[in-house]
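Hi support team,

I'm filing this because I wasn't sure whether my run with iron/sulfur cluster finished correctly. The job status page said complete, but I'd like someone to confirm that the output block is well-formed before I use it downstream. Pasting the exact inputs I used:
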Amino acid sequence: MSKFQPEHFHQQAADALADPQLRHNFRGAMDYLQSKRKSAFADPQEEAAIRDRAEAIRRRCLRKLPELLEQLETNCTANGIQVHWAENAKQANAIFLAIAQSVAQPVSNPKTNHALLMIKGKSMVSEEINLNHEMAKHQITCLESDMGEYIIQLDGDTPSHIIMPAIHKNKQQVSDTFSEHLDHFTPTTDVDSLIRTGRQQLREKFRTAQIGVSGVNFAVAETGTLCLVENEGNGRMCTTVPDIHIAVTGIEKVVELLSDVPPLYSALTRSATGQAITTYFNMISSPRKPGELDGPKAVHLILLDNGRSQAYQDEETRQTLQCIRCGACMNHCPVYTRIGGHAYGTVYPGPIGKIISPHLLGLEATQDLVTASSLCGACGEVCPVRIPIPSLLQRLRHDAKLPPEQEHQPLRGQQSAASTTESMMMKAFATVACHPSVYHTGTWLAGKVRHWMPDNMSNWTQCRTAPKPAATSLHHLLKQKRKGTQQ
Ligand code: SF4
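And here is everything the job wrote out:
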């Protein structure tokens, strides 16, 4: 479980800013990812066309989401994939547990005394439901097989980026982790040797694991196909070697047609890592069929809601669900690139985390995250599906202060950031601003008493200079200027 919490965002951000090694690691990694994306979208017209198409597909699929989910279930079931629905993390974990407990002959692992081994490909939804921790309570080991996830699992750490989970570590730190946890490891900063070491450790585990777990990038309703994008080959191993494959994904990942996948795949890989395509692209349509030599004997698909329906109910917040989890908004965010992912205290950090986490966790816990943005717009400019992240942040800031009204569906935790003092001040300002004579008297008076304004204004002046009203208001200056022109 993460030691970071969204409620402690301010302190966690301050700690991250005070860590020069962390800042150096992130700066280097983000510069690299930004330049990779830039070269993948060298032609602005092509970039616009790819983004237009990806946005249109995601919008269409979301418009039809309820019927597409039903179609997906029908076609997956016809293909032999067992479909499960989970309203929240608890239900999703219960489904995992029930499947694990149905495995007929669990093999005992003498080293850990755990009864069953699940080997996991990269899946942010499994992080969302805290799968590893929940399964460990039942003597089930969940071993990460994505190299970045494997490194942070050894450290008891959590991902700091949605596609590069160990990006907060440099080569030396990875070597230190391996030295601490792996027998017979010779410290090195050679990346190939480090990767080789990790792979050797994992190879045997693929053969002995009873269950393979993966995420899903696109679930195709038309054909009942689960698409998985990856670069390491571990996703293919997880989905083909163990006897049981469990895929877990959010309900928004469904797409209508098989032909929707290539444009989204292209937008995803270019935005994420600057690749035209990834090394592996897996399409899972059924369990092993009679006569086939490999593949899992059973495939399960868990479709998780966990707050996504709340986002779906409102046309504006529904846009959040267009996300294809490329991470580009994070790589270009001036806040994320300085503080990294852990400071947010949520599974999804950065700009996408700020707009999705309030639906998953409620606004009570995440109200500080929605204000942690300068609204510079960099995230919205690079998002391949054109999610208007800055305006969604403004919407969430507004809702965090807004009393729930009966005629519309309030967001969870709505009004949690409301402050009586602030609301009285805004009401007073509104009254003044609506009465020109009061406003002019106020600005004239403020100019006269400006020298008595305090230099220390609590949190406001922690990293800013206290504002001083101008000696003469702009209105008065313009009036004087007009008089001068007329004379
Ligand atoms: S919000 Fe856009 S840029 Fe950010 S991860 Fe999602 S698709 Fe990528």
